[in-house]
Amino acid sequence: MLLETRGITKSFGVVRALRDVSFTLRAGEVHGLMGENGAGKSTLIKVLTGLNQPDGGTILLEGQKVTFAAPRDAQAAGIAAVYQEINLIPERSVADNLFLGREPRRLGLFIDRPRMIAEADALLQRYGLAIDPKRTLRTLGLGLQQLVSIARVVSLGARVVILDEPTSALSSAEVELLYRVVEQLRRDGIGLVYVSHRLSECYQLCDRLTVLRDGAVVDSAATGDLPRARLIAAMLGREAGPVVARTPGASAVAPAPGSAATALRVQNLSWRRRVRGVSLAVGRGEILGLVGLLGSGRTETFKAIYGAEKPDSGTIEIAGRRVARPRPAESIRQGLAFLSEDRRSEGIFGQLSVRENLSASVLPRISRWGVISRRRQDELVVRYLRELGVKSAGPGMPITSLSGGNQQKVLIGRALCSEPGTVMLDDPTRGIDVGAKAEVHRVIRGLAAEGLGVLVTSSEIEEVVELADRLVVLDEGAVTGELATEGRSGDDVLALLAGDPSDAQAHQPSTGGAA
Amino acid sequence: MTPAETPTRPAWLTADVLRSRSVYIAFILLVLFDLVVTPGFRNPVVVRSLLFEAAPVILIALGQALAIGTRGIDLSVGSVMALSSAVIGITLSFGQGVSIAAGIGAGLLCGILNGLLVAVFRIAPLISSLSLLVAARGLAQALLGGARLDLPFDGPIAIIGQVTLFGLPVTALVALAVAASFAFVVRRTTPGRYAIFVGASRTAATLAGHPVRSTLAFVYGLSGMLAGVAGMFATARLGAADANYIGVQFELDAIAAAVIGGTPLSGGRISTLGTVFGVLLLVVLDASFIMNNVNANYAQILKAAFIVGALYVQRAGA
Hints:
The complex is a heterodimer. Chain A is of the alpha/beta class. Helices cover 34% and strands 25% of the residues of chain A. In chain A, strand 1 and strand 2 (15-25) form a beta hairpin.
């Protein structure tokens, strides 16, 4: 046994974050750590990496009892964590980052750059990462940066690597690369603790799954012996089932050109080389899903339609009216709202209250002569907090005091405040827990039922298939297909994506040009 | 921890509350200290003189707080005060009313220029306002030919520099009235909220459809105009237009006052009352050194140490 914890307990004040947690990790094993937010995953990781000291219980590393007073001790013992936020230096090269603080030197003085680059290259090759070690780290996608981070900790001698939410930042092709890296780690006999919200990934990747709930281990089994339903039931602490059945309301046919039922029509939209001649139409009451692999340009398409990126060519019609100069403010005025995939840096105003965050897009509408009407602001806030079921201690609380799922609902509320005819939701359930996810789905279906056009994408294909009435497939910035989702599964769509000959290349590790 | 173990302390005594009120507490402590130790501090003439000193600084500190609230900075305020002073000096022949308007207008123009550089040409506020710091003072010195220009002993400008109401300088009362409207603008109006949103997250503000550029132009324009008024006040108090004296290093006091008062450099938050008290604190601190005959050089060092200490307390709360 590479790593074992026995009866770990940890409390913060009255909160029992970990209760008698026993967990084992074999060499060469990928072990998924599952659970909703607040289940205790983060605390367990902090205990394993020496950030927190357990109140009770023992940690055994290769059978030896160990205690970590500080993260340094855990690192020295060979336990390393790679987090969503990468702590490398973005402005330096990949090689610099890999050898940070232990650069090969000549005469013990000067950095031996050629040797460092050669060694970095060998290291990257070993993990199947076709990245030029001389490239500036910043120019890689976040996902690739994370893979570099993994290569670094392993080359530093880590035997236990903890990947905390690795794929939240990764796109599908980077996930592909991650799989290769993981395979190599397996061969090297390194134990991997894998923490992710994405069930499908965990099923593909992990040998065993352990489920935490309320700080205790509630289930642990080999992946093959743990069906999805049982896993979800264990995570949620209740019998899993479809939360809301999808009503086959809207037609699965694209609205006819010029039809009054069109909420949003985009024709031949291009932006740089990332969006290439995209045409699509969303009907009123329709949920249109945008699916595609890494770099297929989902986010870029959204942003070009919204005017956050200035499209080079193409036309955009919102509710039948052509938008002359797409800009966010103009799009909102015309009735198009957008929810960014990056909640933290493009969505919330971190220091401000729930009230301010929710009403941020409609200040002109609730003010006269530039003076904001507190009454009308509060009306909006009360209405949307209730309609969306936001759990908060009050509209005056900072938005950062809310859970990720509730923050997301506030941002959806912000989008709805402007009373849009169409909403574009870029990965609306990213990084939120299973329960909140179901609620966000319920909200999205409710919007369509009220007659709004919804354009949605997700990094989980199954999610889009489940939500959408119709799918548009995007590949390298261009639309390559369309299909109704009635009776389809995520695998069908994957097959469609995989069947596309141009897609075969997307699965190859591209030379670092990923993001 | 069971409730029995929890120390029963009143809510207003917690570390967070103390920290967020630190500028007021420090101000009260300093005033108490002066009342006990500093000879002559109780004299109403001294208080009046301090408020005359504080009035222009309050104005530029408010503009500064707004700029900092957008995660920017305005280093030009001191030099813009000097330019305003110089413009007043050279336009006196058109009548004092005109020259007052010209001085304020010069400040506004500087602010708009600064705002354009920041908003349209996307130059970092630190750089654009630094270049304006150099250029505005240079222009002021050129306009006055490097000399001090004494103003007439009568007329509106002389009155502004001396008149009091209920024993309080009218300039200080104006500054407080400006502070009150400033607080209203920041809290309750769209331009004020947009400034805060831009400071909290510029990307999120853009995506939320906010007019980011005009907001920035407004912010720096207002800061420039307030500096123009401040320059006029300082000129009136001095009784002379002097490009080498007016507003020298005032930008530092303005920044310190805003930040000590609870407007973090990271943007997204503005404390108007805190900024006013930050200015009062610094003005009283200066006076304490002078009235206790502390050597001016040591006084500078002590003041710097005090500011660093105050910022440390703020930072610990962040």
